[in-house]
Write a structure and sequence with these properties.
Elements (H helix, E strand, L loop, with lengths): L3 E4 L17 H10 L4 E4 L7 H10 L7 E2 L1 H8 L4 E5 L2 H9 L3 E2 L6 E4 L7 H13 L2 E4 L5 E4 L2 E4 L1 H12 L4 E2 L5 H11 L6 E5 L2 H10 L3 E5 L7 H4 L11 E3 L2 H9 L4
Parallel strand pairs: 1-2, 1-11, 2-3, 4-5, 4-6, 6-7, 7-10, 11-12, 12-13
Antiparallel strand pairs: 8-9
Helix pairs in contact: 1-10, 5-6
Length: about 260
Amino acid sequence: MNKAYFIDVQGTLIDDINKDPINGAIEFIDTLNEKNIPYVVITNNTKFKSEDFKKFLNDKGFNIKNYIDPFYILNTVTKEKRVAAFGVDEFLKTMVDLGYVLDYENPKELIVSIKKDYTNEDYASMIEIALRVNSIIGMHDTSIYSKDGRRYPGVGAIMKMIKFATNKDYKVVGKPSIGFFQSAKNIINVDFKDIMIVSDDMIGDLIGAQNLGMSSCLVLSGKIKSEEEILSTLDEKDKPNFVCKDMGGVLNLLNKGEI
């Protein structure tokens, strides 16, 4: 039995198309609450302010007690307020609301979030800015962005492209950065070795968590549709401890005392 859980949101608790709760998701959170099992809902939400997105989830029927997203720790990673930020309009608005100044001519930092319809011109702008600034930041390091039933390059894939193009490294705010996981761990005061992480992102979430000593459960309700898509690409040490169709399967394992 695990002492605590980290639970992803998109593709794990809610679906990527209609944003509705996935089978077993509400019941899983309710069970953790009823049994007083520590947990943190960990999301790479960069679209809405933290309190607004948590309210959105609770309005969907969840009763989430502990929550964290990249905005919670953004100021521990960014050192400047004048930034060139890339992402959807809601992300840019949230950045301004948080006190950042958007400047694409003389920025101090490059900050990249997710967007479905980035163009080559956007990537060219990112590269040009990356070559000029001393600090390059990815809001998270996800491998794939699932939207409207399609799979697009995640922020992690984009950041690795920028790194390859410029030979300059970057920092990560959200998952799977050590700082993010450490901040989530501090909320519940449980050792990594006693935490199981549940997510639909093998590369962008689970492997990083496993490297810190956490156990893992991959759900096939989001970015990855079948075990065959991903498991054959992994070294044995990187494979998840459990694979479930969705949170209903995870709940079943919890109720049987297998996780």
